[in-house]
Amino acid sequence: MSELVIEGLRAAVDGQEILTGVDLTVRSGEVHAVMGPNGSGKSTLSHVLAGRPGYEVLGGSVRLDDVELLSLPAWRRAEAGLFLAMQYPTEVPGVALRDLLRASARTSDDADEIERAMVVEAGRIGFEEKFLERPLNVDLSGGEKKRNETLQLGVLRPKFAILDELDSGLDIDGLRMVSGRIEEATEEYDLGVLAITHYSRLFQQLRPDTVHVFAGGRIQESGGPDLATELESTGYERWVEPAAAKPSAATLPEDPFADPLG
Amino acid sequence: MTDFSAASARALAGPSWLVDRRVAAAEEFAATAMPDTGAEEWRYSPIGDLDLDRFAPGAGIGDAPMPRLDIQPAALVRTVNGRVVAIDVDEELVGLGVHVGPLVDHPDGAERLGAITADAGDHFTGLNDAFADEPILVDVPKGLVIDRPIVVTHHAAGDGTAAFPRLVVSVGENASVELLDHHTSDDEGQILVCPVVELDVAPAGRLGYLNVQELGATTWQIGSQLARAERDATLAAATAAFGGAYARTRADTRLVGRGAHGDLLSLYFAELEQTLDFRTYQDHLAPDTTSNLLHKGVVGGESRSIYTGLIRVRTDARGTNAYQTNRNLKLSEDAWAESVPSLEIENNDVRCSHASTVSPVDEDQRFYLESSGVPPAEAERLIVAGFLAEVLAPMPVSAAAHKIRSGIAAKLARQAEAAAA
Ligand SMILES: Nc1ncnc2c1ncn2[C@@H]1O[C@H](COP(=O)(O)OP(=O)(O)OP(=O)(O)O)[C@@H](O)[C@H]1O
Ligand SMILES: [Mg+2]
């Protein structure tokens, strides 16, 4: 049993604080859904957890069992068992998925074993084998990119996976197979999941234990799977700060360019 | 400059037509001023550092170890300091009229040598004209398709040597052949190599030419690659450049017949204090001609790369498609890549484009790999090899691709060592 413990995590981009104090614990085998408005900082959270350069951590901690991840470079975090499926996977020209998997510190040195795992995992999510030869994400459709991310996850067998809108771009069958694959991983090897999504359709196969509402750079409320259904009808209005909402006429400053005669 | 005088050109062996040709070239060379960086063509080069007095033509002739190529060639020629030391040609090809060997042994040798060099090349093409000891001719007769590559290897040896390898490739109408031209030199001593290769493709002929440059670390190369493609001919001319202290290749490609096509590819990787220099001309003289130039290179350490290229579309060349792309990856702060593509168009009915970039390894690509557990040094190696893969894949003589890949791998390993130190 492993634990990913995020405490008081605060981070900024370009001097602007985006994460304002995230507290969240994910245990092996658990599925945590994170839902929240556009621009609330969900992808930022995923990047800061994975160690992407360009973010300034202002405070807090992220521990995978006894290891403080924030002090490790990205590849060491992955080696320790963290996986990130990006919302917008990066194209890497000329580098094939097998090159990445062979070079990863999480896989064995046995090239044949990696090859077999790739073929098996591709079959499980309906990813045609011809895509295995393509350079990473180059000329892949949106849904193909998401399958490619899922295949990586299947071969790398992380302890915890952060899935940033893994469902976006996938067709109906793709969504079923990909979310089914993740659900199986939570049973097969106790994968813990932090699934960022906008739509509860993801949860038909991948059953969340907890649903979190993420707004203003932190978790505002947590609940059971019913919370996701509720959000579908209510939206996020209650958690959006008034300042970010449409300013009312009363708060508008006096218009210096107004026509004095008008 | 006494060693490059007309008298020393006259002393070289050969039939009288060749001796006369050499002497005329030597006289012209002597009468022309050495180029300097004041000339646009040499602007970014270290040409001012070249002291010809330190060199003598053809010195120190000896044999050299055969480079390991792991290719079963249809024909093999090896030269050391511009002189043939070995020839091995498939008997069947000889029977079919293929010539691979000294140009002077071919009945039309005198016409073939320099047939396409008039108004092309530079000062050092002229120096090769004067001192090329034993020009080689590869002549593939009309209609013949050769399915295995022909291999020519050149080695330059000995401190103070100036070597002038000369290779003339003549592909007959509708004939097809691939050729690997491999250049090496000693890893020490002052060596100057001025190779000239002429690529002449007759109507509907197809030539795949690959130059692999693995010169020693202290060698200077000032080379010329002069090509002519006639009606509906297809030329793929590629260079993989790794070695040399300063290594320059000037490539003139002339598309002289309607529908002629040229793929001009180059891959380079400079390290330490190397300078790799490419000057290209894509010259469209006939209608409906196409040229596609892609040069991709990596600069590490304190090295430099120079790319200057010109697409020239002549008045008659309507329907031309010409593309010119140069991309550079900079692995260190101190590395430097100069990239100057340009166009000169005299016809309106054309499609031309040029692009050039110089950039460090992409941070997002790096993160994508690292976030899957790939260590940083390994991630950089994958990205760099992937960057070069785009230009390596379409190169001719695919049997030599492994050689180029190991050249890249050796460079990357040294980059990683340097970074770790
Ligand atoms: N490099 C950056 N510079 C400045 N602001 C940034 C940068 N990257 C992100 N932001 C801002 O940070 C905020 C959070 O962005 P983030 O991508 O984390 O949102 P999100 O919750 O994932 O949104 P979505 O649901 O649309 O994916 C946004 O307002 C965004 O504009
Ligand atoms: Mg997002």
Describe the structure.
The complex is a heterodimer of chains A (262) and B (421). By secondary structure, chain A is of the alpha/beta class. Chain A is 30% helix and 27% strand. Chain A has seven helices and twelve strands. Chain A has helices at residues 42-50, 74-80, 97-103, 111-124, 142-156, 172-188, 226-234; strands at residues 3-13, 16-27, 31-35, 56-64, 67-68, 82-85, 92-96, 135-136, 160-164, 192-196, 210-215, 218-223. Chain A has a six-stranded mixed sheet, sandwiched between helices. A four-stranded antiparallel sheet of chain A has the order 2-1-4-5, covered by helices on one side. Chain A has a two-stranded antiparallel ribbon with strand order 7-8. The longest helix of chain A is centred in the last third of the chain and has 17 residues, at 172-188. Chain B is α/β, with parallel strands linked by helices. Chain B has one domain. Chain B is built from eight helices and 22 strands. Chain B has helices at residues 6-10, 16-31, 91-95, 109-112, 123-131, 363-370, 376-392, 401-420, and strands at 56-57, 75-80, 83-89, 99-102, 136-140, 150-156, 161-163, 166-171, 176-185, 191-193, 196-201, 206-214, 219-229, 234-241, 246-255, 261-270, 275-284, 290-299, 304-313, 320-330, 336-345, 350-360. In chain B, the strands form two sheets. In chain B, strands 1, 4, 5, 7, 8, 10, 11, 13, 15, 17, 19 and 21 form a twelve-stranded mixed sheet that branches. A ten-stranded mixed sheet of chain B has the order 3-2-6-9-12-14-16-18-20-22. In chain B, helix 2 (16-31) packs antiparallel against helix 5, helix 6 crosses helix 7 (376-392) and helix 7 packs antiparallel against helix 8. The longest helix of chain B has 20 residues, at 401-420. Chain B is globular, with a radius of gyration of 21 Å. The termini of chain B are far apart. The A-B interface holds A 50-54, 73-75, 77-79, 83-84, 86, 89-95, 99-101, 103-107, 135-136, 152, 156 and B 363-365, 367-376, 378-379, 382-383, 385-390. The structure holds adenosine-5'-triphosphate (ATP) and magnesium ion. Residues 13-14, 18, 36, 38-44, 87 of chain A line the site of adenosine-5'-triphosphate (ATP).
